[in-house]
Amino acid sequence: MTMTREQVLSKIQEVLVDALGVDDDDVTPDATLMSDLGAESIDFLDIVFRLEKAFGIRIPREELFPTESLMNNKEFIQNGKLTSKGLDEMRKLMPHTDLSKFAKDPDINKIGDLFTVSALVNYVETKLKNAA
Question: Cα–Cα distance between 44 and 50 in angstroms, integer?
Answer without folding.
Answer: 10
